[in-house]
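Lab notes, practical 5.
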Amino acid sequence: MLDLVLPLQCGGCGAPSSRWCDACASTLQVRLDQPHLITARLDPGVPVFSLGRYAGARREAIVAVKERGRADLIPPLAAALRTGLVHLLTWGVVDTPLTVVPAPTRRWAARRRGGDPVTRMARTASAGLPGVTVAQALRTRALVVDSVGLSTADRERNIAGRVKPVRAVAGEVLLVDDIVTTGATACESVRVLHAGGVRVAAVLAVANA
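Output from the prediction step:
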């Protein structure tokens, strides 16, 4: 009866009676050679890793979390992020003690979404990992607009000088984000962290466009 009132739909493909179907779950499985090193259009000066392309069920799940309030999809996305993080630790790309810093989100957007989904993914992904903590160390200043549809140059101008540190972090840092598109946010975030004397080892994203 509840399904008739609030019908369940898979967050990846829209299939009925399932929040996250097996077929879509398989698209988020992280292989032993993932995450892959990618080349962002704007180079943040540290390695950038992605778990997969921003397409298909991966894209639909991220959009559903950010734009439709599908908090139930955070666990599968966080599970993939966790595996990617474990691989980076195993490969020696990052080392403990490690602070995972979520990429900054506009405060009004976070309020509209019922919280910052990137931070929630990061906390879920890092839970229980020895020597790994999460710190919301960055925030965007006012006047940052939605970057959807902006060119690479416009994205860079939109974020330049508008990321600020709000919490001190020490030791090695891994910057995490849901999507790396042009790399503008990663560039500004890494710049701000470096300016504060923080060593950023890498960037890890759930998807790259």
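Observations recorded by the TA: Helices lie at 2-5, 22-27, 56-68, 74-91, 107-112, 117-126, 152-159, 184-195. Strands lie at 36-38, 48-50, 98-102, 132-134, 138-140, 163-165, 172-180, 199-208.
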